[in-house]
Amino acid sequence: MNYTTCFNCNSEHIEIADGMTLCKDCGFYTMKGFNVLSKNYYDKPKTEFDGFLKSQPLLVQSLKLYDETQKLYWIPFILNVYPVGIIYPNGTSLDNWKWCFSVYKPIQISERSKYPNPNKPGEFFEYNLDIENETQCESFGQALEYLK
User: Fold this and answer.
1) Among residues 33, 32, 31, 23, which one has the least CA distance to residue 99?
2) Max CA-CA distance within the chain?
3) In this structure, are residues 62 and 54 in contact, taking their beta carbons and an 8 Å threshold?
4) Cα separation of 58 and 62, whole Å?
5) DSSP assignment of 103-136
6) What is the pLDDT of residue 20?
7) Hey, which of 10, 71, 82, 115 would disulfide with 125, CB 3.0 to 4.6 Å?
8) What is the pLDDT of residue 75?
9) What is the DSSP letter of 45?
10) Could you report the per-residue pLDDT of 30-51, keeping only the tens digit for each?
11) How far apart (Å, rounded) are the C-alpha atoms in residues 121 and 144?
């Protein structure tokens, strides 16, 4: 995997870390292991990427791109910076979607018991995503500005 420009948008604003290549302009990324997409007889994941992709929102699955030269898939990156906010693709189709940013809002102490943390029994979330008031952005790069 040797990228100096983005496969999707040809931007040079590429960040490479921990085996992952992320375009800071369009928000698509790839990594080692994103190289095979196949199904076996029982329609079960045959590779780690198959299982990973099936765990992603349908829009992310639909937006995947394949780089024939490097033999790797690129998909939109969902960036969750708790407790600041999250950047994610949102829309109804391939032709009708945008990058969005939603903030985490503090949950009042008296309300926290309504939000148990399934990964930590007996503990409760302190913040909740405010998806209803998401900010739509023209690009992933613009959405990144909200995290600063």
Assistant:
1) 23
2) 55
3) no
4) 6
5) EEEEPPGGGGGGSB-TTSTT-B-SEEE-GGG-EE
6) 92
7) 115
8) 96
9) B
10) 988 887 654 444 455 456 787 8
11) 33
Single-letter residue type at 48: E
Within 13 Å of residue 79, how many CA atoms lie on the same side as its CB? 21
Measured on CA atoms in the order 143, 132, 29, 148, is the torsion positive or negative? positive
Residue at 98: amino acid letter: K
> Rounded distance, CA 41 to CA 49, Å?
17
Q: Is the Cβ–Cβ distance between 123 and 84 less than 8 Å? A: no
103/133 Cα distance (integer angstroms): 8
CB atoms under 10 Å from CB of 80, counted, come to 12
Quick one: pLDDT at residue 47? 66
DSSP secondary-structure letter at 93?
E
Tokens of 82: 């708790």
pTM for this structure?
Answer: 0.85
Query: Which residue numbers in the chain have pLDDT < 50?
Result: 38-42, 45
Q: How far is 105 from 85, CA to CA, in rounded Å?
A: 9
Report how far residue 146's alpha carbon sits from residue 148's, in angstroms, rounded to the nearest whole number.
6
Residue 142 token pair: 């613009």
Alpha helices in the chain (DSSP H): 48-54, 58-62, 140-144
